[in-house]
Amino acid sequence: MQVLYGRHHVRVYRFGLRLVRDEQIAEDLISEVFLDVWRQAGKFEGRSAVSTWLLAITRFKALSALRKRKDAELDEETAAAIEDPSDDPEVMAQKTDTGKVLRRCLEQLTPDHREIIDLVYYHEKSVEEVAEIVGIPENTVKTRMFYARKKLAELLKAAGVERGWP
Amino acid sequence: MTALSKIPDMPPEEVEALLPWHAAGTLSARDARRVDEALARDPKLAKQYAVIQEEFAETIHLNESLGAPSARAMQRLFAGIDAEPARTPSVTSTFSARIAEFFASLSPRTLAYSAGAAALALLLQAGVIGAVLVKQQGNFQSAAHEAQLDGGARALVRFTPEARVSDITQFLDTYNASILAGLKAGMFRVQFGDKRLTRDEVTNLMKKVEQEKIVSFVAPAQ
Lengths: 166, 222
Hints:
The structure holds 2 protein chains of 2 kinds. Chain A is mainly α. Chain A has helices spanning 2-20, 23-39, 50-68, 71-81, 89-94, 98-108, 111-122, 127-134, 138-158. Chain A is built from 9 helices and no strands. The model of chain A has no long low-confidence stretch (mean pLDDT 83). Chain B is α+β, with helices and mostly antiparallel strands. Chains A and B meet through helix 1, helix 2, helix 6, helix 7 and helix 9 of A and helix 1, helix 3, helix 4, helix 5 and helix 7 of B.
């Protein structure tokens, strides 16, 4: 368990943190995820990678944790955490570090869009694996990724970064 | 025309949809080749791919900046494991098999994350031993907790990467040995029997253990 934990806990934590946006909850989440793994190793069917299984459990637990918090409270918190890029367009436009702006815009995506971008780019999950983790058809995975990227492009455009797509 | 180039073209919108996975390197070889071919003949698509590569890099940057959980999470986990009810031997045995299958199922891509096959073999070995063998000794202690047994010679043992769980179990049975602590610097801390041994006896024991096929290194330890 130590080894399994050592190999995967950081990615599981980061995936959970991006979903729940609360370090304390994300830490509680990983303990619960690995404890579940300890209890239910027999349920691992071996058809997917261990990391895919772990991320699917993490996602399920993260959503349960989020449900425990009042939706309204969460929305308010999330909204408060997001700075409106239109607050100071000049400052944004003056930013020469496109990477920084891009990361800022990635933070502003909706949870669904953020999740799929993280799974594809950071967790390096295939279309099939994302479908398994999120519980949606493979075609929906591709469509959701497309719209996530489109939304990202819109946010970047609003922040003064024109990339010629879409 | 080569056989490989006979792969039928994908519709442009399908190629476009696969670009993020191409950037992440998670497409099948066949799809990756199709996308590569499309990129080579379509400058507009190639431009979009450059944009995607930037997104890919910044998403990694963003996630890497999130830091790591504190030790509290691990302490909580192992406290939870210790609080779990003891399992019966038969259940433990089944669990052992499950864990072995579990690790055996690591995909090639997952394997690619490791520094190397040998290192991974050691890690898997440690995982199985930590999770299963230590528990099979009846103490039901998690690998995070070092058992403290009285008497017996103690040694640091490194098993060969080829050693299977069954080999290690057999080894432990043969020497009436217990694993006191998990993998540290590639080695396990093992206690042999429960009787105090003279210096000569320890030396002889170490020589004998050293001859074992599955042992690549052994040294007396406190």
